[in-house]
Write a structure and sequence with these properties.
This protein is an alpha+beta fold. It has helices spanning 22-36, 48-57, 144-159, 178-185; strands at 3-10, 40-46, 62-64, 77-83, 86-95, 115-123, 130-136, 164-170, 214-219, 224-230, 244-249.
Length: 253
């Protein structure tokens, strides 16, 4: 059976005022990733230094897909990490604006420039390739998020037409929102069938903020959902978001 596991985690930017410092959180996240062993995973809200920290901690088991990028050290970036035995065929940044190829561009009233990282990958035991993406939509402007979702769909369809596709990221919106409706109408499926649960954002255990805003969405003619998982620990936090993953297979023997 050909199968793979995808995951996503918002890293939470390095902030000295947080109760859990990145210097402590990064090793907790490394331990979780080595325990769960996704084939590839998406991150959001990481600065260059955090992404490089994580890549180093993963001891070469995963490749950070950033070779196409010129970093602004003050900016937070979504990113993709892929197990080293996967072949990376292509990768690119696309800004979720009216000018997706212009670095740092923003539109639609978005408070921040928002980005998607796209890639085309293939494993040794798969006949077909996969298009994957890490995305992060605006956290303040409700009207911007559905338009950013539409740009994401247009850019991945333009870059990798007809591919099996896994999108992973922080939508900053709930499953019943217009933002997720845009993705649903394009044919993307949700492992939790668009339910409000599970909780993915916990604000370091502050229950009043509990919500579901992180997603793994899939559209495929070859692969079906096999399993799903959300970490739900209380304490020893690696972020103010939980790790979310889903496994897929093609049903072959």
């Amino acid at each position: 059976m050909n199968s793979f596991k995808a995951a996503t985690i918002n890293l939470r930017y390095e902030n000295e005022e947080d109760q859990d410092a990145w210097s402590e959180r990064k090793t907790r996240l490394r331990d979780l990733l080595f325990e769960r062993r996704p084939d590839f995973f998406a991150t959001q809200e990481g600065r260059q230094s955090q992404l490089y920290d994580l890549a180093q901690l993963l001891e070469g088991d995963y490749v950070l897909l950033d070779q196409h990028r010129a970093y602004d050290p003050l900016r937070m970036y979504p990113c993709l990490f892929v197990q080293k035995d996967w072949q990376v065929l292509d990768t690119m940044d696309r800004w979720l604006s009216e000018t997706p190829e212009v670095s740092g561009s923003k539109s639609f009233g978005s408070c921040w420039p928002k980005l998607a990282v796209l890639a085309k990958i293939k494993s040794a035991n798969q006949k077909s390739t996969l298009a994957i993406g890490s995305f992060h939509f605006d956290n303040e402007c409700t009207e911007a998020r559905p338009k950013q979702a539409q740009v994401l769909l247009e850019e991945i369809a333009k870059a990798y037409p007809g591919e099996n596709c896994i999108l992973m990221g922080d939508a900053n919106d709930d499953p019943k929102s217009l933002t997720l409706e845009v993705l649903r109408q394009d044919g993307f499926c949700d492992p939790w069938t668009w339910a409000e649960t599970p909780i993915t954002y916990h604000a370091f255990g502050e229950r009043k903020y509990y919500s579901r805003i992180d997603y793994i969405l899939f559209k495929s003619s070859s692969y079906g959902l096999r399993a799903k998982y959300v970490d739900d620990r209380e304490g020893d936090y690696y972020s103010d978001h939980y790790y979310v993953s889903a496994s897929f297979d093609d049903g072959s023997e």
